[in-house]
Design goal:
The chain is mostly helical and 72 residues long. The chain is 81% helix and 0% strand. It contains 2 helices and no strands. The radius of gyration is 16 Å and the shape is flat.
Length: 72
């Protein structure tokens, strides 16, 4: 139960930085994420962490590609 509460708090905080998700939706996603991550086990946790990192890097590269280049 304590993990679900922490997941809901973390999810609502993350939702503030993600467009299209409100605080309640983030809380629901946080609770669902804790349940899923608990069932994955240690290898699944590492894989989820690496996947999140790879997604972050991909989104950053896409963002920099879309940004206009400064003119000298």
């Amino acid at each position: 139960m304590f993990g679900k509460i922490l997941g809901a708090i973390a999810g609502s905080q993350v939702a503030q930085h993600v467009r299209g998700i409100d605080g309640a939706g983030g809380a629901v996603l946080g609770v669902a994420a804790t349940s899923v991550l608990r069932r994955l086990g240690p290898v699944g946790l590492v894989a989820a962490g690496l996947g999140g990192y790879a997604l972050k890097r991909h989104l950053q590269k896409r963002e920099t590609a879309r940004a206009p280049s400064p003119r000298a």
